[in-house]
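Chain A, query sequence.
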Amino acid sequence: VREHKDELTALDSAIGDADHGTNLDRGFAAVVQTLQESRTEHEDAGSPLTSAAKTLINTVGGASGVLYGTALLRMGTALAGKTTVGGDELVAALDAAAAGIAARGRSTVGEKTMLDAFVPAVDALRQALAHGATLGAAVEEATLAAEQGAEATVPLVAGKGRAANLGPRSIGHKDPGAASTALLFRALATAISGAAA
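Chain A, predicted structure.
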């Protein structure tokens, strides 16, 4: 997020509040600090996600903090008590996250939101795993789907958020939330690749 902060802010300046990159950078920096300070050796997979969610909600202004916070909170709930996470658990957690985003944002795919990257990514992950892909390869497929989903928001008319006020003038701009979603899936793919190395 930090590496692409200016890019995200530029996307948001075209159709939003011009603060998406700045807000997420501040929020995820706080998440990293919180997780480093609270790390324990035997914690379950849900705990860091729940902690990250609370930090984001308390640190990031605007809709993105609430939406990403909700996503991480739902994932934390789905993974509570689990000490290892495989493909099935990851799909279930990401399904819960997508449902949380949709409910909190009262949105669906096709409205030029982060869901336009998130939902195709989870679908691609599920399909890749069903076809026997390793977790790393499946998350790479999910990441590519998220990146394609973000690009696919360019010709859409925004149906939610501040961008919806622009109506047809929102056409031609990539949704910043979809762009940051693709970045987070890329980070997940990098983390899994590093863990497998």
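The CA atoms of residues 86 and 135 lie 7 Å apart. The two ends are 23 Å apart (CA to CA).
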